[in-house]
Each structure stands twice: as structure tokens, then as C-alpha cells.
Amino acid sequence: MATWSNFNLQNGASPLMEQIIFFHDHTLIILIMITILVTYILLN
């Protein structure tokens, strides 16, 4: 059961799945940074 402190994907069962999870995490970080930047620009 997932809790707030452990809310992420399962470990990858293959090297390809590990790379997909790595790509997903980094893409999410970049999207969050862009969203924060756009919000900052809109509010100023």
C-alpha cells in the first residue's frame, strides 16, 4: 500500500523499464520547473 512518504513507481523489472522510469522522473522535474517559471512570469 502506498503512503505519502513512499509514493513512486515500482522498481523496474528490466533495464528498459529502469530507463523509462528514469526518463519519466526527469521529464516530470522539467515540466514542474517550466510550470513554476510560467506561473512566476504570469504573476509578475
From TrEMBL:
Glycosyltransferase as UniProt keyword: no
GO molecular function, one term: cytochrome-c oxidase activity
InterPro entries xrefs: Cyt_c_oxidase_su2_TM_dom (IPR011759), Cyt_c_oxidase_su2_TM_sf (IPR036257)
Keywords: Membrane, Mitochondrion, Transmembrane, Transmembrane helix
Entry membrane topology: Multi-pass membrane protein
Annotated localization: Membrane
Family the UniProt entry places it in: Belongs to the cytochrome c oxidase subunit 2 family.
Listed name of the protein: Cytochrome c oxidase subunit 2
Record lineage: Eukaryota, Metazoa, Ecdysozoa, Arthropoda, Hexapoda
